[in-house]
Fold:
Amino acid sequence: ALSERTGETIQLAVLEQTTALYINVIESQRALRMSYQVGTRAPLHCTAVGKVLLAHADAQLFEATVALGLTALTGATIADAASLRRELGLIGQRGYAFEEEEAEPGLRGVAAPVRDFSGQAAAAIGISGPTHRMSKKVLLSYTRDLLDVSNAVSQRLGYQAPVLARRA
Structure:
């Protein structure tokens, strides 16, 4: 449904040691599209799905990721620990991550966590496409649908979002 609504490539990734592992991909039907293969590993520090997984992981994974080196794949890659830590904090606050040509020139994306019954991020769902179609405005317009889908999948895994107290 998310693929049909956006017309872009949708990925589902899980944490595999210090990488994001794509376990399901629905490719866009458009001629110009981002192509991912199931089984491909992606860096945590510069992909939307990777940053979501890293933002919801423990501090040990952050330290291990930094220790491996934050390789700058493009001029936009976050390549220092302090900047990455700030970015992960923002992701935790807003509930989703952006990728702004950080892993590949001409690629943008947005991703959100899929939570298991315990509330831990078990996976990340992402939408990605070429920059000429995926402006910041377009990415923002996809976040509501993305969050709806990630919440629906999370509920199927037994996650129950906390009920916020209502003000009288």
